[in-house]
C-alpha cells in the first residue's frame, strides 16, 4: 500500500506543480503583453512626433519657396510670363499625345 500512497502523493505534487506553472505562464504572458503594448505606444508616439516635425519642416520650406517665387514674379513679370507660357505649351504637347 505504501507504493500506492507514494504514487498518489507524487501525482498530487505534479498537479500542484502544473497549477503553479500555469499561473507563472499566465503572469509571464501578461507581462509580455503589457511590455509589447508599451513598446508599440512608444513607437507610435515617436512616429507621430517625427511626422509632425516633417510636416512643419516641409510647410516652412514650401512657404519660403512660395515667397521666393512671388518675389521673382514681382521683380521680373515678363520673364515669369514667358516661362509660364513655355511650360504650358510643353505640357500641352505632352498631354495631347
Describe this protein's structure.
The protein is built from two helices and no strands. With 97 residues, the protein is mainly alpha-helical. The protein has one domain. The chain is rod-shaped, with a radius of gyration of 36 Å.
Please write out the topology.
Layout: H1 2-75, H2 77-96
> Helix count, per DSSP?
2
Q: Per DSSP, what share of the residues sits in E-state strands of 2 or more residues?
A: under 5%
* Main structural class: mainly alpha
Report how far apart the termini are. Answer: 99 Å
Q: How many beta-strand segments?
A: 0
Total number of domains: 1
Rg measurement, Å: 36 Å
Mean pLDDT equals 89
Helix share bin:
over 70%
Write the element-wise H/E pattern from the N-terminal end onward. Answer: HH
Largest sheet: none
**What is the 3D form?**
rod-shaped
Point out poorly predicted stretches. Answer: none
Amino acid at each position: 500500500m505504501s507504493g500506492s500512497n507514494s504514487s498518489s502523493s507524487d501525482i498530487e505534487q505534479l498537479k500542484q506543480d502544473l497549477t503553479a506553472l500555469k499561473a507563472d505562464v499566465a503572469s509571464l504572458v501578461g507581462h509580455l503583453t503589457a511590455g509589447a503594448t508599451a513598446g508599440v505606444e512608444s513607437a507610435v508616439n515617436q512616429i507621430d512626433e517625427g511626422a509632425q516635425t516633417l510636416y512643419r519642416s516641409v510647410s516652412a520650406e514650401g512657404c519660403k519657396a512660395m515667397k521666393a517665387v512671388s518675389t521673382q514674379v514681382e521683380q521680373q513679370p515678363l520673364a515669369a510670363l514667358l516661362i509660364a507660357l513655355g511650360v504650358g505649351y510643353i505640357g500641352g504637347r505632352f498631354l495631347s499625345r
